Amino acid sequence: MKYTCLNPIASVGLDQFTEGYEKTEKMEDADAVLVRSAAMHDLELPDGLYAVARAGAGVNNIPLDKCAEKGIVVFNTPGANANGVKELVIAGMLLASRDIIGGVEWAKSEAGSEDIAKKAEKEKKKFAGCELMGKKLGIIGLGAIGIQVANVAECLGMDVYGYDPYISVDAAWKLSKGVKHIKDVDDIYRTCDYITIHVPLLDSTRKMINQDAIDLMKENVVILNFARDMLVDEEAVVKALKEGKVKKYVCDFPNTTTAGVENAIIIPHLGASTAESEDNCAKMAVQELMEYLEKGNIINSVNYPNCSLGECTHANRIAINHRNVKNMLGQFTDIFATSDINIANMVNKSKGDYAYSLFDLDSVASEEVLDKIRAVEGVLRVRVIK
Ligand SMILES: NC(=O)C1=CN([C@@H]2O[C@H](COP(=O)(O)OP(=O)(O)OC[C@H]3O[C@@H](n4cnc5c(N)ncnc54)[C@H](O)[C@@H]3O)[C@@H](O)[C@H]2O)C=CC1
Ligand SMILES: O=C(O)C(=O)COP(=O)(O)O
After folding, report:
1. Which residues of the chain are modeled with pLDDT < 50?
2. Can you name the CATH fold of 305-386?
3. ipTM surpasses cut 0.90
């Protein structure tokens, strides 16, 4: 099996690949791709590619449907970099609250000045700020990152408001009881001193924080965006920064709209750039790929359902990527039955427009049988796992 890396991937992850795996620089030779933020939308997807693993959370750089259509399963690594982002969000709140950056620059500019200590006591009032304790923090999106930000902000004495209409049961269990459950996002905009967004970039979330949202916000609000720049109408934010309505805009995604704007604190996408997050993501991504390539089991896919049959202890395992339409299973089982093959174990799962079936068989399906399955309308890929 060959894999290629479209971004540098931590070696502790790649070291998990066992003997049968080999790294290639050529995407066209790869069975699997590992990627972080590299844009894949315009890349040609080779016919031999089985899987893409995003060592990270956001998958807006990957053509999910195009991959699904070719039977390519795309994985991400949920939560593996959440702590790294959480810590930077807290740093962002602190940077927005006190002029730490201005103060550090001042001290640098006074390097070599004999009376720097005396001057500092005189100048420091310029860089004074406020504390986080007692302030209202609104969190939009209570997933892996949003929850961690909520819980730590509560420990810092903030009054935390959370909004996520799609919160998972697991996430809700992890959320501190003190976090106020907000059902209408406008209440976050109206109430909070700090607003942080932690949702995926989707058509439904693009420019979610827009002029209308800013109009509802309090004077001097701080907006933090460590999710994706396109979630925010940044032209509206820059206008609000200039008018003084928004105190600071802290964003982890530099672009020409915000870089250099006064009171915009722009960070070069450092949220997940810690040794720990990079290692966690790489390890999880490689494990997901090996599980899929070797056993056909899908864990943490974003374009196919999660689906697992454990280890194959039978003669043959067949994996079928297919459309989520009626009677696919009926047609597959029919083909096995008429070919005199007993199904020892099977599972079929769906997610949106796509589905996946795994069959463990008591005898080996011939090429002829596999071709019959390939010919079923709606089948996108058939793979012999064992
Ligand atoms: N700055 C960085 O380096 C990093 C940025 N990210 C970004 O942060 C995003 C979130 O990451 P995670 O928390 O790990 O993902 P996650 O999938 O665990 O959480 C996302 C949450 O957003 C919620 N959500 C979806 N649509 C929503 C809506 N319209 N309103 C409110 N909530 C909504 C979901 O229900 C889910 O709970 C990623 O999609 C990625 O774009 C993630 C990791 C690193
Ligand atoms: O995981 C994410 O969504 C991120 O934004 C992190 O991106 P990176 O892996 O640092 O290029």
Report:
1. none
2. Alpha-Beta Plaits (3.30.70)
3. yes
